[in-house]
Write a structure and sequence with these properties.
Chain lengths: ~300, ~290
């Protein structure tokens, strides 16, 4: 029983955390029409920004150059701003590219960032990463740490969902939708397409940065291994799983995927080889799910039926 | 100076490998109209079939390689027919994302069957030759030779044979090709066989010049993407130029900056190219 509640807590914690990414991606792709295959880069930027801002100045064997030793909330804000700054940096030259070119360029940027984090030890100790990342003391609330962080992730998710919902229900959101549906028509009635797309891209990367900071708090470690293209694919799979265009779908898809992974991880294994095979099986099943869902799109079919009724 | 020339020469070898790896990818992009992320996994499949027959079953390298290439071609055809054909109508973005799923499945299967660790083929050690103070191994020469041979025979195939012309017609304008009586399904099948077979060939080359591990394919897709974008997704001949540019740029860069940045150079080239000239080297619109 205890393990089951433990797993449930983990699912809520990481499910909510990654839901923030899925929601942002949903805004960029389903509403803004931009394929961002470098989601992990903004996540990593947030996590590293948080770690660097809160980390003590380097000493001993540390190779990183900057540690500001500021309180956690400063790091949290810095994480959101850093992700936005990175979005401005990468969005400005690339957003005029279309469809798959944009997908590839954002992917390239994410790989470059990962490579920089590995090679430039001055940023965060290279492959070693920054350990013992500072986090707010959870005991003040009288709850166990995991519960507090699960709650924090859940709140962040709700806040993101609420903000995006408000944004999209506004006239601004309708302009965004108009661009996705018909660029020429939107342009004809005086909407600046390039600027709107750029704004959506930058705005939606801010929650990703916050999620990165929270992730750093939960794991208390940042290193380049945690921020590979697999995170990007994971979020894309979650988005596809939940069916695009709905906020609830994005959240459910992410939760289901995290739950599935945690369930496999919870199975005890006798040997290393068995664990290895299980890890491969996880990949295979994930891949097949991906293909099957895209082929038949059961969830979006369901949503359509509900709308029609 | 010799050192720089040596890096450039190694870059040419890398470039030739990249050409072999990318041509199939670009062919798929042209005819089938989407980016097949799983293409690199086929390189891995071919490399490990070669390894299994050669080091495992004790076959000589040449028949092992031939069987691997043919098998990979048919695996590619099978995946194309079963997975991609039914979802083509949903648009290139959906197919692109599906191919990530395919890559996951292939990678997972390889991992489950072969396991982690580093493998090598059972072939004689490379012999090094020296020309004007520059070193090149016999296996590297094979890569260069095969890349040249493949380029020439592919050009002949696409320009002289019925199937080749049909493939080119399909890639330029599918509707018009169909209305002029080209069998679209058969041409699509031929393309899958050809592009997957080329992936198989590149996989064998990879097995020859590199050490094998199951995550090898993922590192290749990054470079394949780089070459393909630089070439512009609309052209095959510019793949040759782009492959050489990326290969030489990556290896020569080691002369000035740390080797850890070698993969990054490929993307730096690509980003610069995309920002300066969004349609790639070929100057041809590909949408």
């Amino acid at each position: 029983m205890n393990t089951i509640s433990q797993i449930a807590l983990t699912v809520v914690m990481f499910g909510s955390l990654f839901s923030v990414l899925t929601l942002s991606l949903n805004l960029q792709y389903a509403r803004g029409g931009m394929i961002n295959f470098g989601t992990v880069a903004y996540f990593a930027t947030g996590a590293y920004a948080y770690a660097i801002v809160t980390q003590e100045p380097p000493h001993g064997l540390d190779q990183y150059l900057v540690g500001l030793d500021m309180p956690w909330w400063a790091g949290f804000i810095a994480a959101g701003l850093a992700a936005m700054a990175f979005a401005i940096l990468t969005g400005w030259p690339t957003l005029r590219l279309r469809g798959e070119y944009l997908a590839l360029t954002t992917f390239a940027f994410a790989e470059m960032l990962n490579s920089l984090l590995v090679n430039e030890r001055g940023i965060g100790n290279g492959t070693v990463g920054l350990a013992n990342v500072e986090r707010p003391d959870a005991n003040i609330l009288g709850l166990s740490e995991n519960v507090v962080y699960a709650l924090a992730a859940f709140l962040l998710m709700l806040a993101t969902a609420y903000a995006f919902r408000r944004l999209l229900a506004s006239p601004y959101g309708r302009a965004v939708d108009a661009i996705r549906d018909d660029e020429v028509a939107a342009q004809a009635i005086g909407k600046n397409i390039a600027r709107l797309r750029f704004q959506v891209f930058v705005i939606s990367s801010m929650p990703i940065g916050f999620a990165g900071a929270l992730y750093a708090m939960i794991t208390t470690l940042v290193n380049p291994e945690l921020f590979t293209a697999e995170v990007t694919f994971f979020v894309w799979i979650a988005l596809v799983l939940g069916g695009e265009r709905t906020i609830l779908g994005a959240i459910i898809g992410t939760m289901a995927l995290v739950g599935f992974q945690e369930a496999i991880r919870a199975i005890p294994f006798e040997s290393v080889r068995a664990a290895e095979i299980a890890a491969s099986a996880e990949d295979i099943v994930t891949g097949i799910l991906f293909i099957v869902i895209l082929r038949w799109q059961p969830f979006s079919a369901l949503a359509r039926r509900r709308q029609a009724a | 100076m010799t050192l720089l020339a040596q890096y450039a020469l190694t870059g040419v070898v890398t470039g030739c490998f990249l050409i072999l790896a990318t041509i199939g990818f670009s062919l798929t992009r042209q005819v089938e109209g989407f980016l097949n992320i799983a293409h690199a996994e086929l390189l891995g499949v071919s490399a490990f079939i070669t390894w299994g027959l050669n080091a495992g079953a004790g076959w000589p390298i040449v028949p092992a390689a031939i069987v691997a290439i043919v098998a990979t071609a048919f695996i590619g055809l099978f995946i194309g027919r079963v997975v991609y054909d039914p979802i083509r109508r949903l648009g290139p973005a959906v197919v692109l994302i599906s191919s990530v799923g395919v890559a996951y499945v292939i990678a997972g299967l390889m991992h489950a069957i072969i396991g982690t660790g580093i493998r090598t083929l059972d072939v004689p050690l490379a012999t090094t030759f020296k020309f004007f103070g520059l070193r090149i191994t016999n296996y590297q020469m094979i890569v260069v030779g095969l890349a040249a041979l493949t380029g020439i025979s592919l050009a002949l195939f696409l320009n002289r044979t019925r199937t080749g012309l049909a493939i080119r017609a399909m890639s330029t304008n599918p509707e018009l090709a169909a209305s002029r009586g080209i069998d679209v399904r058969q041409t699509s099948r031929a393309t899958w066989l050809l592009s997957s077979g080329l992936a198989g060939l590149a996989g064998v080359m990879l097995a020859l010049i590199a050490t094998l591990s199951t995550d090898i394919a993922f590192h290749q897709i990054l470079q394949i993407l780089a070459v393909a974008i630089l070439a512009g997704l609309g052209s095959l001949y510019s793949v040759i130029v782009a492959g050489l540019i990326v290969g030489i740029a990556m290896d020569v860069s080691v002369f000035w900056i740390p080797a850890g940045y070698r993969p990054l150079i490929a993307f730096a080239v690509v980003i610069i190219a995309l920002v300066v000239r969004p349609e790639g080297l070929s100057m041809k619109s590909s949408s």
